[in-house]
Each structure stands twice: as structure tokens, then as C-alpha cells.
Amino acid sequence: MDKKLVLASSSPRRIELLKQIGFDFEVIPAHIEEEKVINLNPDELVKKIAVEKVISVSRKVRNSIVIGADTLVYAENKILGKPGTEKEALDMLLLLSNKWHKVYSGIAVLDTETQKLIVDVEESSVKFKGISEKEARNYIQTGEPMDKAGAYAIQGRGAVFIERIEGCYYNIVGLPLFKLVKLLEQFNVYVF
């Protein structure tokens, strides 16, 4: 491949996942306003934000394939992004307690030369065990939930709250690898 691969994200989890499958890439964080758009469904919202990220970064690079992603948690008809305060994190964790919720990740891939853009979304379901307010507060004190959609990290200490998942584990982490690889293949970018 003669085009450079660029990840439009500073997410340590997305960076680690792309490294895990062996891609050589550059990280250029997208600087966009991730405003909450009330009139969009969660799957449409994550796709919209992923597209905004690749477009933002595509203006800074040439001869590149740019990857953008956005993840959110959807529970009880509420979109849960990253908590802004410990109180928001507590409210999110207690909302998720003993219930199923959905995790949506939008992925956008853009070729900066041809302007070919492909966008898709992955949906997974997660069942939380019942958690007490004390457990939630103690988890928040670790700092782990504060930069995670839905205020938990399935790949971290938050794993102890997860009773069951349906769908792609990596989607819940923040980058659905199987779907991403299928999209990249449409740009002649291959893992093997």
C-alpha cells in the first residue's frame, strides 16, 4: 500500500487495537465539537461524528486513508457519552445496573485522494450485573470511568460489572476490528 494510514483519534484504546492487528499508522487527533444531537438515533449520531472526524483530519494530510470512529452507550432511551463529572459517572453506572444496554460505534474511512468515503456502524449489547452505589463510587475513585462512554471500561476493572455481551467485544472497547478490517479491504488495505 502506498498510501499512509491515519487514525483520527487520540484514544489509547483505539491506538492499541490498531497496533494489535499489526497496522502501521499515524495518529492525528480530530478536533471537532461532539455536540449532542437530540434528533438523531444513536447509530446515526456515531456515524455523523466519525465522518466529521475523518473530514477534519483529511484536511491536514495527503495521500492517506483516514479512519475515524465514535462510540456511545445507549440505555433507557438515553445517549451516554463520556461523563463530565463524578456525579454523571455515578448516574450512568446506576442507570446501567442490572440492565441490558447497547453500545454503538460508528466507523468512517476516507481516501484523501479519491474522496471515497465508506461509513458503517456496529451495535453490541451488554448486560450489567446489579451494582451498589458503594461499588459504583469506589470504581469512580479509580479514575477509570471518566474518559469512557457509559462510564466503564470492559477491558479494565469495569469488566467485573459485565454479566454478558452479545456482539463484538472490540466494539464495546471502542473500535470494532472485524468491521473496520472489512471496510479497509474496500480501500485495498489488508492485515495479511
TrEMBL record:
MF-aspect GO terms: dTTP diphosphatase activity; UTP diphosphatase activity
GO CC, alphabetical: cytoplasm
SUPFAM superfamilies cross-referenced by the UniProt entry: ITPase-like (SSF52972)
Keywords assigned: Cytoplasm, Hydrolase, Nucleotide metabolism
EC number in record: 3.6.1.9
GO biological process annotation, one example: nucleotide metabolic process
Family per similarity comment: Belongs to the Maf family. YhdE subfamily.
NCBIfam families registered for this protein in UniProt: maf (TIGR00172)
Stated role: Nucleoside triphosphate pyrophosphatase that hydrolyzes dTTP and UTP. May have a dual role in cell division arrest and in preventing the incorporation of modified nucleotides into cellular nucleic acids.
Name of the protein: dTTP/UTP pyrophosphatase
Organism listed in the record: Thermovenabulum gondwanense
Gene giving rise to this polypeptide: maf
